[in-house]
Amino acid sequence: MSVDDPQRPSGWLKTLLRWHWISSAVSLIGLLAFAVTGVTLNHAAQIPAKPVVTRLQAEVPAPVRDALAAIPEGGELPGAVREWVQTQFPVHLAAARIDVSPDDITISLPRPGGDSWVSIDPVAGTAEYERTDRGWIAWFNDLHKGRNTGPAWTWFIDLFALACIVFAVTGLLLLQLHAARRPQTWPLVALGLLVPLVLVLAFVH
């Protein structure tokens, strides 16, 4: 039986230590970022933020107006219109929410830390773009919440949460292995459970 055999206590300890340090290394920066943004979210009302609003307007050219007029009720936005919008304004429509009606086309472009939209009036032949930027703290806060971040960031949060679970569980098992020589271990673990539990029961309604 080899030294690294997980059937032996030394093998278990080495395995736990290996998974513990790997999961801690993978989740370290994320844990720090989520802890900091937890504080900024908790005090969002006390952190001053002045939104910066950018507005642009444009005249819709005749070929684009013809393409708009040909859209059936509840139809999709034609490729020519999409191309013109992306050329005229600093937007990408791949993940946009588009509401098409005969007298108005609204393109919603929510994003972390702000939002933007494009409104097209097919009758008047005008288009308006507005972008609101609420600052880098709001951007990080929205990343923390996964708000308007897209599927790639959602997958990252899931994988990061899995790494944190591995980190916590292996840490708990390591505490169990060393608890006999450290009598403060379980009282401190119990304290970590009781403090938030008491606060929730006593002050959160």
Automatic annotation (TrEMBL):
User: Any signal peptide, and if so, which residues?
Assistant: none
Recorded hits in Pfam families, A to Z, give: PepSY_TM_like_2
The answer on whether this UniProt entry bears the keyword Transcription regulation reads: no
Q: Does the keyword Oxidoreductase apply?
A: no
Organism superkingdom: Bacteria
- InterPro entries tied to this protein: PepSY_TM-like_2
Tell me which UniProt keywords the record has, alphabetically. Membrane, Transmembrane, Transmembrane helix
According to the record, the segments passing through the membrane are: 20-41, 155-179, 185-204
PANTHER family cross-referenced by the UniProt entry = INNER MEMBRANE PROTEIN WITH PEPSY TM HELIX
**What's the protein name?**
PepSY-associated TM helix domain-containing protein
Q: Which organism is it from?
A: Tahibacter amnicola
